[in-house]
Amino acid sequence: MLLLAAILIGCASCEEIVGIVSTEAGVERGATVRELAAYEAYNEGVALSARDVVMAIAKFEEAIRIKPDLPEARINAGNLLAGLGRTDEAEAMYAAALECADHPVIRAQASSNLGLSLHKRSKVGLGMLEEAEAHLKRAIELAPDFVDARFNYATLLQDLGRVDEAERTYEKVLELAPEHENARLNLANVYFGRGETSRAATLQATLANDEAVSAKTRLNALNNLGQTLRDANEHRRAEVAFRRAAELAPDDATTLANLATARRTLCDWSTRERDHLASLAAPGGVMPYDALMIGEASAEQIRDLTKAHVEKKFGRPNVVPRRRRTTPRPSRLVVGYLSFDLREHPMGYLTRRLVSQPGAVALSYGEDDGSELRRRAERNMVDIANASLGEASERMRAVDVVVDLMAHTRGARLELGAVADAPLVLSYLGYPGTAGGRHYDFSIVDAVVAPPERASRHFAEPLVVLPHSYQANDYADDFSMPSSQDPQEAQRLCNYNNVDKFEPVSWGLWMNVLRRNPRATLTLLRPKSAGIMETLAAEAAARGVSPRRIVWSPRVPKREHLERLATECDAFLDNLVYGAHTTASDALWAGVPVLTLRGYGDGRFASRVGASLLGAAGLEALDSLKDFETEAARQKEDYWAPLKRATLAASMRGPLFDARRTARDLDRAYHAAYELAHFGLWRGHVVLAPQTNPSRARRDCTLRSILRALGARDPPCEDDDDGDHHDLATALSAARRLAAAFPRDPDARHALGLALHASGSDAAASRELEAACRLAPDVAHLWSNLGHVRRAAGSYFEAAAAFLAAGARDDLRETLRAATKNRNATTTQTSSVVVVEAAFVASTLFPTEPDLKLQLGAALDDVGDARGALEEWLSAVRERHEKRRGGRVSEVAIVCDEYGQSWWPGWGPGSLDSGGLGGSEESVVFLARELARLGYQKIDVFLENPPPEDVGDDEQVPGSLVWWPLDAYESADVLVAWRYHITAALPARRKFVWLQDVPSYASWTPDFIRGLDAVFTLSAFHTRTLPFAARAKSVVSPNGIDPNYLRDGPNDPAVFAYGSAPNRGLYDLLRVWPNIRAAVPNATLVVYYGFSASFLKWGKAHIPAFGVWRAQVEALLRQDGVHYVGMVDHDTLARGYARAGFLLYPTTYPETGCVTVMKAMAMGAIPVTSRYADSVVPELTVHFDLGPTAPRTAPPEASITPADFSDPAWMADFADAAIAAARAGLKGHLDAHRVAMKSYARSRFLWRHVASTWAATFSSSSSSSS
Length: 1266
Fold this sequence. Notes:
Layout: E1 3-8, E2 17-23, E3 28-32, H1 33-48, H2 53-66, H3 71-83, H4 87-100, H5 104-122, H6 126-142, H7 147-159, H8 163-176, H9 181-193, H10 197-208, H11 215-231, H12 235-248, H13 253-265, H14 272-281, H15 288-291, H16 299-314, E4 335-339, H17 346-350, E5 360-364, H18 372-377, E6 381-383, H19 389-395, E7 401-404, H20 414-419, E8 424-428, E9 442-446, H21 455-458, E10 463-466, E11 492-495, H22 504-516, E12 521-525, H23 530-542, E13 550-553, H24 558-568, E14 571-573, H25 582-589, E15 594-595, H26 605-616, H27 625-632, H28 640-653, H29 659-678, E16 686-687, H30 698-709, H31 728-741, H32 746-758, H33 762-775, H34 780-792, H35 796-806, H36 812-821, H37 833-845, H38 850-862, H39 866-883, E17 888-896, H40 919-933, E18 939-943, E19 952-953, E20 961-965, E21 969-978, E22 990-994, H41 1006-1010, E23 1014-1017, H42 1020-1024, H43 1028-1031, E24 1034-1036, E25 1052-1058, H44 1066-1079, E26 1084-1088, H45 1093-1102, H46 1106-1117, E27 1122-1126, H47 1130-1139, E28 1140-1145, H48 1155-1162, E29 1166-1169, H49 1177-1181, H50 1208-1226, H51 1231-1244, ...
Helix pairs in contact: 1-2, 2-3, 3-4, 3-5, 4-5, 5-6, 5-7, 6-7, 7-8, 8-9, 9-10, 9-11, 10-11, 11-12, 11-13, 12-13, 13-14, 22-27, 28-31, 30-31, 31-32, 32-33, 33-34, 34-35, 34-37, 35-37, 36-37, 37-38, 38-39, 40-52, 44-46, 44-50, 48-51
């Protein structure tokens, strides 16, 4: 910026204008004598700028002292100060120039330079980047043709991730200055980043071959061209480009590193050591990932160059790391997994479990490849692929812990972790080395890959050390294992690492093995360049090994690759410098032994991964190259097959493939690291001890998942994934793998037998089950299932023999004699294995007896075969009917066959006034009477074992309603199968099922559903529990109340009632009753229902430790203020509810009808309930419920045993709600609420409404049938 002219016009005094100054920008200024001296000093500074920066700055400062408002002096001084690294002073100069600039172009120059400086200094600090953007945009507004401002703005946009805007801005620069070298170079980088390899390479090649451009630009173009060609797998051409760059600049660090990397990929080892030493000697050239491949590099060298790389990109950190957002420590951390590779990629598999954990968020900036892994990650994904840094930061704002899964690997965007304001940022999984410190608070490792005592040599940041392998391996069992591991004549060695990891020491070691074992072959992953295969063939020949013994295998999908490993490889030979990671895990999961060292060279992370994996699997790594060679060269044919079985078994036992355990360990790690961060303790390591009570081993969870897929009712493993082994094909593959791993394990052979049977291979199933029985001859259920399979195959007597063997220890033979002697017995409560096996044997030997088929159906249902159970039950019901034909044809028949499982033995309409009835049983009495009152003339109710005095005409509607024993049924126009859907097998013109409980899905087959006219359910919730096909035929007909039993009473606010089975919240209520009693004077809790005979029978069969639990409940029933009444008749219960002010019901039971709540509301007892969503309760209580606002979410088991009492916080809220209701009631504040509720209940909950719904349904069905 030179002074162009100074025209003297005279001088009266030093303060008068004596001349006019013209500048480069075309500004003409009047100047005094003293100001002319400023311009003279300014011009001297311009002249000195190229040869003496310090003196030039001094001259500009002299000019500024004379004329403070000389913007050109401030801009030039700022430029020189910036070049010296004195950034703050430079920016102050630019800011001052903006204040005094008197022309738009000069202001644009100052604004552009200030924006550029802020951009360079920001190092992804978003606030400074936004300020830089504002200055650059202002510069362009002031001077639209100002090329430098536009170029600076384009580079800023590129760094912000706003690539499309950057591209348009570079194109505008080239419109203004077509030969702008850096704009052309950066535009090519934009193309490369978008995957437009051809466009990028064309532009880069044009620059590289243009003699008119500067040597520096040509050098950058050649290096960029080489990277583009590498990305396109044009490795030979890439090496040529890097070689040309080296010829242009022999000492350039980046070029030397690129050339060494290209030659390594080509397996050109002729100059390897020289290339590596040269690239390491030139600081700043080697990228962190490439440095890991250099065996000659020390741990300290790699640590320092990685740290320098991060500092170059982001600036040096402060002594205390910059803290991000601070928040109170949450009970559950939101963990964001940041990655480019959440797709069909090793990272996608490694994070399969992690991104599905509660509180996990997938932070993806990679492509959507449409894979199952991508879909899984998308369950809770924040997509930041096309987001600017500011947008990405905003989208990550809710995350407490950012876990960078990439660091310095391909595709990584380090700046995304830097702009996250999460309190904790960690590096994990993708990059086997230091992240470089700075914004990384920790790296996550294990004690084998990164022993804490060596951490300072290898890492720039502190460590989180997991107790087992750092990998979160989560493999599915969906690949086929070989049926046997037969000895091989020729040993089949393999290595499926990319050739990038190959180096001459490993290659020489492998060739030594092949020479010592002349029949062995080595399978390698085929590279994309045929030239590399030719090079390695020559390297093999040079070491005395025929290239024909090198087998090149293509890339295949994951499942196919695992099958290939299992069937085609006897041992995996690891690399030395950069060993196998997920490829080694693949091999171990496929049962292939991995030969690896405990560490190589300087013992860096990348060389110790194999040892870590083996250790977590309970296997051993090798100590020396000699041991490696000796082990790999073993030639005995029977050596490798048992070793493969041992490897497969090890993969199922230890923590290596237990992703559930790893996920829990990581959760502990995140919380521990968060604690350190919260208290500002930044430099300490976090070392996790193994948990003393680990989860079930992978073997146990796999076994359990297989059995669940085959219909067993075993509870899933903790955190079991919804998709684990839930289809038959996957279950069969898992069973084959389990049996191959544990051929002497009867449970494994048993599981395979069941899976084969389910697949229709009964012969193979029998062989596996026979093997299981031989291994465990005293285990009854193995023989039982063998009998089941033989029976399915039609081998009845062989099946009977197996069933007999099943009961040898339980004196089954005596039971069988009794069962076969009295074959008309109908005991269906299969409470012991003895009765179950007796049913199998008796049904097998007497296949035409219907009652034995009922027994068999119950047995099948007990073992999870619901479809088989349905077939046996329906067949038995039809056969029983054929044997006892002779009754009358009914207009409407309600058949209450309970198949020996009645809760209320010997009940009938008279029970209402004697011992009372349950809600399901009383509904039959009331609804049948209401149907008769509607005008039906021939309603018959058939009961399993009615009291003799109840048989005959109903006393309230005689002649229209008749009560019968079961064997009187002949046929009906309308058959209503009460409670048990299998009763619908009886003959009738139209068939309806009246459900009371939640049905088993499996037994509702499509054919069965098609044969029904409608399904009566008790509520919308009840309907939702049906299979989808049955929901279309559902009609909601709730339970109701009979107006003859409506009672009014005082509804005392200090009296509370509980009126349901004891397992539906009573235990929890009694635990908090002292709180209610203390807060409400003279409070009384009246408990109805209680431990009836029917409940005792059910509880002993279904509630764990029933005796202990019952004793606990009965003890609590004796506390002050509790009045235990138990079972009462219908009228007494109605009067009790009318006396109570409130019904307390903190249930987590999946109530389908809940007549208890209906009655209480109709009598004026206001419900205070759990509002449990998985029940009918919210449908009934609507806005009248005074329970806690937040519904209870505890599982049903929470109220079964004292040890399960795990929801004290919610129950405290429940007690508070009950107290608040009582206090409001005592003050009269609930009087109107109670009146409105009684009116609502007495109108809505009447049986006549339900009867009308049934009548309309019968009529609609009749019209459809006709």
